[in-house]
Amino acid sequence: MNNTFSVAISNRNVLGKNGASRILLEQAQNFSSKGARVYLYVSRINKALVSKNITIKRFFSLNPIKKTRREQFAHKFKDFCNRSNIDLSIGNGDTVYQQVLFMHNLIELENKFVPKMQDLSSNYAFLIHDKILKEKNFKLLVCNSLLMKNFIQQKYCVLDEDSIVLYPGYDPKKFNTINKPDAKNVFIKKYNLKKNFIVGFVTSGNLKKRGIDIFFETLTHMQKRLLDDISFIVVGKEKNFKSYFANYPQLYSYINFIEPIDDVENIFKSLDVLIHPALIEEFGMVVLESMACGVPVITSKRVGASEIFENNLSDLIINEPNPLEFSKKLTEIITNTQKRINCSLAASNIATKYTWNSYFAKLFEIYAFKQLIPKSFIQT
């Protein structure tokens, strides 16, 4: 193997909590394990998440204007790659020039479906995305769902041979069905939950986009006798979560709010059902990770991860976020024990196809086919 092969991966912020950061870090580690020299080109990063054999290159600017700093970052990555004789450059929606572009979100669709979004004309992230996709300075576009690929192809006329759909992966050592009853008992005691049946709404942040209002409205359509027998948990980053109860005071005693935790797998192993009513979600790694833990997931076609649902699980998808429809699906899965068991088994079986090992095996084969990496990289 050519140990001098060099890879540079850019992303403004690599803090580890969101899907984009996790995909980037997994890819960096995969390249490093194959003997490549790996650089992460960033503005902010959680160093604790990065292996010692991966080099961090920080972009720093004293310019006080946020838009200008974004534009500088978008163009300086190319300069760094040229100076460092980088063999493969990988961008994540922040840089204008790269050989491989990973897109993680569609701000234009967020603007369409999420209330009170920033106007696109002043949304710096959208403006950079728009420039990147219009100029097409990449050899390969990696989309995390058909939902994303179809939108980008229709708007920006990206050729089919220049883009692929590759669903993100998960770590089966963390996300699995091992010791689920024990994990659930510990979780119930830790958070002093009153009922053993747990329905969850789980996200790393941006509760509005992930459909928190839909979640609350869904519960208003549920029969009280069902609500009384369930512990509902909301996991997310929100400074003023209690404000959501202003319009739903009757739900206050039913919902438990939990800040995001590092061992999120223990949350998933404790759930009986996950509801993911996102207004728009380009993929949704919490869906896949909870499935790997054997959790039935109720969601809609506006969530990219719904595209991997098969067989029994497909019945848990609705066409678009709708509180009444979500309440019907949730009531059915709660009251029909056999269906819940079948969906749990289906979820964990489907998830086994989407591990990180499978993800990178496919990705590196595509890289080699596109002559972006040495073929030796897919033989190790």
Any overview of this molecule?
Helix content is 37%, strand content 16%. The protein is built from 13 helices and 15 strands. It has two domains: 6-169 and 355-378, Glycogen Phosphorylase B (Rossmann fold), CATH 3.40.50; 180-353, Glycogen Phosphorylase B (Rossmann fold), CATH 3.40.50.2000. 41% of the residues are buried. The model has no long low-confidence stretch (mean pLDDT 94). Strands 5-3-1-6-7-8-9 form a seven-stranded parallel β-sheet, sandwiched between helices. It has helices spanning 19-33, 66-83, 107-113, 124-135, 146-156, 180-190, 212-220, 224-227, 265-268, 285-292, 323-335, 337-351, 356-369; strands at residues 6-10, 13-14, 37-42, 44-45, 54-58, 88-91, 100-102, 140-143, 163-165, 197-202, 230-235, 255-258, 273-276, 297-300, 317-318. Helix 7 packs across helix 11 and helix 10 packs across helix 12. Strand 8 (140-143), helix 5 and strand 9 (163-165) form a beta-alpha-beta unit. The chain is of the alpha/beta class.
The strand order across the widest sheet is 5-3-1-6-7-8-9
**Structural classification:** alpha/beta
CATH superfamily of the largest domain: Glycogen Phosphorylase B
How many domains, as an integer?
A: 2
Overall radius of gyration? 21 Å
Mean pLDDT comes to 94
Please give the largest β-sheet. 7 strands, parallel
What is the top-level CATH class of the largest domain?
A: Alpha Beta
Terminal residue distance: 9 Å
- Overall shape: it is globular
Helix content: 25-40%
Beta-strand share of residues: 15-25%
- Give me the CATH architecture of the largest domain, please: 3-Layer(aba) Sandwich
Low-confidence stretches: none
Counting DSSP H or I runs of 4 or more residues, the number of helices is 13
The topology string of helices and strands comes to EEHEEEHEEHHEHEHEHHEEHEHEEHHH
E-strand count: 15
CATH fold naming of the largest domain: Rossmann fold
Pfam families: Glycos_transf_1 (PF00534)
Keywords: Transferase
GO molecular function, one term: glycosyltransferase activity
Domain Glycosyl transferase family: 189-345
